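Record type: monomer structure entry
Structure origin: computed from sequence
Chain ID: A
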Amino acid sequence: MTTTRFAPSPTGYIHVGNLRTALMNWLIARKAGGTFILRIDDTDPERSKEEYVDAIQQDLEWLGLTWDRIERQSRRLDRYAAAADRLREMGRFYEAFETPTELDLKRKKQLNMGRPPVYDRAALALSAAERDALRAERGQGVWRFKLDHERIEWPDGILGPISIDAASVSDPVLIKADGQVLYTLASVVDDTEMGVTDVVRGSDHVTNTATQIQIIRALGGTPPAFAHHSLLTGPQGEALSKRLGTLALRDLRARGVQPMALLSLMARLGSSDPVEIRSDLSELIDGFDLSHFGSAPTKFDVEDLFPLTAHYLQTRPLAEVAGKLAEIGVPQDLAEPFWLMARDNITTLEDLKRWWALCRDGAEPMIDEADRAFVAEALALLPEGPFDAGTWASWTAAVREATGRKGKALFMPLRKALTGQESGPEMAALMPLLQRVPGRV
């Protein structure tokens, strides 16, 4: 059975970069009728916070990306310790004691000699007595996985065939000197024991994937199918990584972005498929194909979310927005005509407030000096309320008859006088909702 996972660290809020990974894995699982695991990677006790665990779940629930089960890495430390012991027994795990300064000097020397800055495995030459002496002097060392120096290959679901020479990669540190298990080991153990079959993540993980494949095989597991999506850039191709903190999902939600607008964009961004607003998740699932995605950096512009949000809202039935209308004070008997009038003239639901304020309180008239006498004559012809769907047509016909004006010269000054704006909803739909008109109490 297809099993995927989303494995965020609870050290901050989910942003659009995280969402891309979560969504692809979710879509793969749902399209196959498989299992989607939310795995909280909380092995770092200093940086992991429960408030972020809660926030991650809230953000995914807001989007409708439900999970079949949730796992916490902090509750599986015994499994990682057992895997570490097995690697030690195999001779694939060794302790190293170099300080950060010493490692930096080694890297600089290798670069100066034109060699790749790969760890030189000096720790493997230490005798037991030397290790004991270093441990007494410096404390516990880090634990590195000893890579087999061979080519690591896999058919990547997006990038195509990948081949990496393990000799060009440093033996990865899997356990820090303070005993903290790092992502690489924890992820391997979890993916293997949880039966994860497919992993989609960013292309910055390609080298990490190569080392994980060796560790999985060393532990007797079968590597999942890997795919690495392109990284997001800003709209001009600039690095987005420094801005991701301002693109948290909760910030987009606060700006009025609708979940389906965000999902419709992120499910197609970077693929050969057009970005089109979808009405529900089932449409995204049906149209998702990992092979349609490319490796080129993918431009993301947060402003693209707002036209999509507007298009989505235009198709929503009254039932889906009734709560918002009640919240801003629209009476129940006016809810339907108000929504039908306003929905094509909003970008987010917050825009409903200004249209209701116009209906409830009227507007400051916008009258050009050349139109002042005309508007005064027209308002004198305006019938007493309440207005109905035919009021605008009958009133403008009477004004045309009295003044001789027609077309834009007739309609625009009247719209501006009643709404204080040059554009907006159809006046025939708006007028029955106007509870105050300029010059009237």
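Annotation 1: The mean pLDDT is 95.
Annotation 2: The first helix runs from residue 16 to 31.
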